[in-house]
Write a structure and sequence with these properties.
The chain has about 190 residues and is of the alpha+beta class. Helices cover about 45% and strands about 10% of the residues. The strands form two sheets. Strands 3-2-1-6 form a four-stranded mixed beta sheet, covered by helices on one side. β4 and β5 form a beta hairpin. The radius of gyration is 21 Å and the shape is elongated.
């Protein structure tokens, strides 16, 4: 009987602590702390690796334990870098406004290839909000990070957002290190 009472008391104390945690999380959000930061603190065993974009536009995840190169096809990587360089996000219906910037990013990744008709069409398709090409690229990016990171961490490295709202990468920008220059030159 004594053990039952202590388990019941333990459950009661846990319930009180959970309520306190919920209140503190609510207050942190009110101060503008992002979900990713809160989750990183709460999941100390699953730290968010730093994302480094090297001077050669290689994407690398750095953690205490290892360094992982993130492999992407050039157009998929150009899409990723486009969204990464716009922390405020991009509304998909406005993608045509980013066509020139995406083209410049692609040319940084493949400077010797030039713009073939096939590549021009692919870039046009990705920036055409009436087509599904951008969603296909976002799905590939999500799969790439899901193969490298735990699911509750990978989602912060992928492009996501609600329908009709800006799509963005929710990774805390303190975890992003730019060692290259991008065509939009947003002070990165």
């Amino acid at each position: 009987m004594k053990q039952f009472i202590s388990k019941e008391l333990e459950h009661f104390h846990c319930s009180i602590l959970l309520d306190e945690v919920k209140e503190k999380v609510r207050r942190l959000k009110a101060y503008g702390v992002e979900d990713a930061e809160i989750i990183a603190v709460m999941n100390e065993e699953e730290l968010f690796p730093q994302l480094v974009v090297t001077k050669d536009y290689v994407i690398v995840l750095l953690s205490d334990e290892k360094e992982v190169k993130v492999e992407m096809e050039p157009l998929v990587k150009a899409v990723y870098l486009l969204f990464l360089s716009h922390p405020e996000g991009i509304v998909l219906k406005c993608l045509p406004d980013y066509r020139e910037e995406l083209t410049a990013l692609y040319l940084l990744l493949r400077p010797n290839d030039g713009l073939t008709d096939r590549i021009k069409k692919s870039i046009w398709d990705v920036t055409n909000p009436t087509l599904n090409s951008i969603n296909e690229k976002c799905t590939r990016i999500r799969k790439i990070f899901s193969a490298i990171l735990p699911p509750n961490v990978a989602k912060y490295y992928a492009i996501s957002g609600k329908r009709g709202e800006a799509k963005k990468i929710d990774l805390v920008r303190a975890n992003v290190i730019w060692k290259c220059k991008l065509p939009n030159s947003q002070g990165l």
